[in-house]
């Protein structure tokens, strides 16, 4: 009989697609050959994402792994009217519901589980209808998962705007949380019509069999405990959390090192500040000017991945272009920083850069994958969150893990950071400024690196969670009826 299969339903996007495929591959290995993986591919909504995903699928298919197969779902209408990224992705997912159902029902093997992404709540209903166990693969950390699960409680506790309340929020398992770290969608209830997405998603998650979270217990133990104890869900036991991370797709370095890496080869150990704002990495001109002024004055070495404005700025469609450096940077900047700074105008190999001994700090937008990569290589951070869950991630880095030096930003001015503030924080992080704070963050980053690596080793917390998950999934396999009444 054919092996039971785990069906993955990833969304497009650098921080979502590959991390889920990587987790699927680990699940395959963890099952000792008892399972296969079937990936359902939704057509990506932008040409750039489509090219990116096609390349990744091609790579996986070329690697010759027999037990992973890809199935293309038909195209659906891409909504043009929506309230924001959350509703946009959810609407696309809802349109795919019948296709997902048909694809699963058409499989000629037992189905062990359906694994969906943060946004894929409609797929949880499909799984329930088919009697298939369902898991949310959470590509962000447990803090964001907790915020979603706890949002119906917070909504009752704070009837007005979070942005107008005094004091801090009491969120189980966390130190007092300033409301300013909530995602914008939550922060401005009245203004943001996607606020309801939070409450509905939090409630809908309770239908899942489990949460597979790309984190390690060592990073977010108190939050994971709070979810497990039902403290976020009014005492109702939440689906089991499997903290299986850090799941990072690491590939061997290319034979011909990238130009950024070759530049780093010539720099002293732990001397370079990496500045990179993720796969969407777009910064408006005033922020670019502040960064340039700070980097010029700080006299530290830097590698700045600077992208150009997107051709299309609608939610979900924003893809950075290659930067025209002469147009974006202040006059004379490149000359004045020649030798100690490199500005890279297109996508850079971030993981290879963070792995390099010359990198001593990372100004990051706090996308969860960037955070995990930085922790994996022991690089302390300067968090400059821009959007979504990134402010909450930054809070975790500074107030729970202590691996980052805080950067004062003005959320009311589109997360603006003054050049002088950035200059101060860079000096603190790389040495030379407030010695004690920088030293602590650097030491913590080294300790957390060791904890992350231990977690995924044989017998580590994430490895153990993975074994439990693989066993549970293996036991849950069901034959999906071909015809439904
Ligand atoms: C799938 O494509 C996109 C996803 C996002 C996006 O939006 C978002 C909105 C919220 O209110 C809360 C969120 O947590 C959230 C997360 C999110 O995706 C990204 O998740 C990554 C990790 O998997 C990473 O941490 C990123 O920093 C998040 O932004 C947004 C988006 O365009 C703006 C997408 O195209
Ligand atoms: O120039 C870049 C920018 C980003 N990334 C990778 O893209 C992913 C970004 O994911 P993250 O969750 O940090 O943020 P997002 O881009 O989804 O906001 C990470 O794996 C980065 O290493 C990269 O390789 N080069």
From TrEMBL:
Gene3D superfamilies: Glycogen Phosphorylase B. GO terms for cellular component: endoplasmic reticulum; nucleus. Its main location: endoplasmic reticulum. SUPFAM superfamilies: UDP-Glycosyltransferase/glycogen phosphorylase (SSF53756). InterPro entries: UDP-glycosyltransf_plant, UDP_glucos_trans. Keywords: Endoplasmic reticulum, Nucleus, Transferase. Pathway: Pigment biosynthesis; anthocyanin biosynthesis. It catalyses: malvidin + UDP-alpha-D-galactose = malvidin 3-O-beta-D-galactoside + UDP + H(+). One of its GO terms (molecular function) is UDP-glucosyltransferase activity. It is found in: Endoplasmic reticulum; Nucleus. The keyword Transferase applies. UDP-glycosyltransferase which uses UDP-galactose and malvidin as substrates to catalyze the biosynthesis of malvidin 3-O-galactoside, an anthocyanin conferring purple pigmentation. Belongs to the UDP-glycosyltransferase family. This is Malvidin galactosylase UGT88C3. It comes from Oryza rufipogon.
